[in-house]
Amino acid sequence: MTAETSQTLDRGLRVLKLLADTDHGLTVTELSNKLGVNRTVVYRLLATLEQHALVRRDLGGRARVGLGVLRLGRQVHPLVREAALPALRSLAEDIGATAHLTLVDGSDALAVAVVEPTWTDYHVAYRAGFRHPLDRGAAGRAILAARQKPVGETAFTLTHGELEAGASGAAAALMGVTGVEGSVGVVMLADAVPERVGPRVVDAAREVADALR
């Protein structure tokens, strides 16, 4: 901590991060141990966060992330999109295919940023806001595959004809970005994805991940 920072705010943010990293919630005692502060401080932090709906406590007293974070989350997509656009533009121009950033939205994959190449005669029409099940298409499959991989290990996923007849896709998951689960990919009208596209998509995913850290 420095003279310019708030210790209370820092602790409150740490509480939210700890709760976001668990599916079953945490007790006051568990939070006290993890933060290295006494239970009274934790009670005050939780009470304040509850007033803003950022934390909720179940009947057993376990604290969990509250629905108030959803209102904050709605503002995340524009920020993520802006950070990803330079890498997406470079990818689209290099490959000559439509590049996209896709994020998890419940059980769906949601395209939040799309860039089309400027020099090709034709390309796949793929729009921001397009959604599809996570288990269909390269973008969603790359995200699902990343959930099974060790942290830091990135690979690409290839598909053909799963979302649009005659279209092939390649995508790689964003790795190491706290609070963001998604992928970067391209979609093209081709029977197969050229060999160089997979590694190029992995590089673009790393560029986007670096921009979001």
Q: Looking at the structure, what is the overall shape? A: elongated
Structural class: alpha+beta
Q: What is the CATH superfamily classification of the largest domain?
A: GAF domain
Q: Give the name of the CATH architecture of the largest domain.
A: 2-Layer Sandwich
Keywords:
alpha+beta; Arc Repressor Mutant, subunit A; Beta-Lactamase; 2 domains; two-stranded antiparallel ribbon; 7 helices; 8 strands; 40% helix; elongated
Task: Provide an overview of this structure.
With 213 residues, this protein is α+β, with helices and mostly antiparallel strands. The chain folds into two domains: 7-65, Arc Repressor Mutant, subunit A; 73-212, Beta-Lactamase (2-Layer Sandwich). Helices cover 40% and strands 21% of the residues. The protein contains seven helices and eight strands. The strands form two sheets. It has a six-stranded antiparallel sheet with strand order 5-4-3-8-7-6. The protein has a two-stranded antiparallel sheet with strand order 1-2. Strand 3 (98-105) and strand 4 form a beta hairpin. The longest helix has 20 residues, at 76-95. It starts with 6 loop residues before the first helix and ends with a helix.
